[in-house]
Amino acid sequence: MITVTDLTKKYGSKTALNNVSFDVKKGEVLGFLGPNGAGKSTAMNIITGYISSTDGAVTVDGIDIAENPIEAKKRIGYLPELPPLYQDMTVWEYLSFVYDLKSAKAEDKKKHISDILDTVRITDVSKRKIANLSKGYRQRVGLAGALIGDPQVLILDEPTVGLDPKQIVEVRNVIKSLGKTKTVILSSHILSEISEVCDRVIIINKGEFVAEDTPENLAARYMGRSHMKLKVYGRAAAAAQILSRLDGVKNVTAMMAENGECSIDFDADLDEEARKNLFFAFAENQMPVISLEKTGATLEDIFMTLTNDNESGGRENESDI
Fold first, then answer.
1. Per CATH, is 2-220+303-310 categorized as 3.40.50.300?
2. Could you give the CA distance from residue 17 to residue 40 in angstroms, rounded to a whole number?
3. How far is Cα 40 from Cα 10, in angstroms, rounded to an integer?
4. 215 to each of 176, 235, 258, 302, how far by Cα in Å?
5. DSSP codes, 9-21
6. Which residue in 84, 165, 189, 264 has its CB near the most CB atoms, within 10 A?
7. 96-112 pLDDT, tens per residue?
8. CA-CA distance, 289 to 45, in Å (whole number)?
């Protein structure tokens, strides 16, 4: 549905994107990740036709966004980080205005808008002025505007930024539902959100492509060892010392609980023999093992591993404009 080929964007001597390529399949929810200034918003703005690229190409449903922008944009619904809402309009007036602006061709305009209000769960505020809505509701009004005309592709730039936990869950559920029928590109700094909602993840760093795969495959490829959690009865310091002496165990972090238990996070690939050695080691020290489980690398772990070199010297103000 979306093909990005050798996408490059320069601002004078500064390179915001450098030869970035990827595909997004029909009906796929793609997570787009990178540190601040990595080029995420620049890439999304080019895909939507909001700005032009210096080099490379973007096609939406086989249509080149640069050569035939009107036809390509008919297939795209875009929610920028700050939705461009008209504060003096009511929600219904705004969506009606967007419908006319997009020259949408639904058989029944009123029903089309009503269905979208239901989808993003804002029917109850449809007659209120946008200026009087909370940030969470305004964000959902922006999402409703992106859905006008029933676009095949949705591009959502930080759709839950600034929302409270309840609002984040509500918007996340809406995105999950939309992902069943539409192609979605989602940019977010809430990595648990990306992991939960997206089928596949793309990570860019300093304007360049870094990695692409499912969160599970990225964990296996880049994190190597499995993340483990052990709970035992006994002192945290003693438990950490015992565990650290076992072969193949790394990155041991122990924390004491009030009930005499301690919880230990560590990295290791434990086969059956290694697990036996672990249990025997704690038994010999009279520290009963309560549980041992494999937790897996989180998307946060992968993100930090792949972008850690960008903490200093990253571009400022030229890539996320």
1. yes
2. 9
3. 14
4. 16, 35, 34, 8
5. EEETTEEEEEEEE
6. 264
7. 999 999 999 888 999 99
8. 53
Q: Do domains 2-220+303-310 and 225-296 have the same CATH topology?
A: no
**Nearest partner of 183 among 214, 158, 146, judged by Cα:** 146
Secondary structure element (H or E) that encloses residue 110, with its range: helix 109-119
Q: Report, in this order, helix, strand and coil percent for the chain, each rounded to 5.
A: 35, 30, 35
222, 67 contact by CB (below 8 A): no
Domain residue ranges of the chain, discontinuous segments joined by +? 2-220+303-310, 225-296
CATH architecture for the domain at 225-296: 2-Layer Sandwich (3.30)
Read off the pLDDT of residues 276-285 as tens digits, 9 standing for 90 and up: 999 999 999 9
The span from the CA of 70 to the CA of 74, in Å, is 6
DSSP per residue, 268-317: E---HHHHHHHHHHHHHTT--EEEEEE----HHHHHHHHHGGGSSS---S
Question: Distance of alpha carbon 205 from its chain centroid, rounded?
Answer: 15
Most distant CA pair in the chain, distance: 76
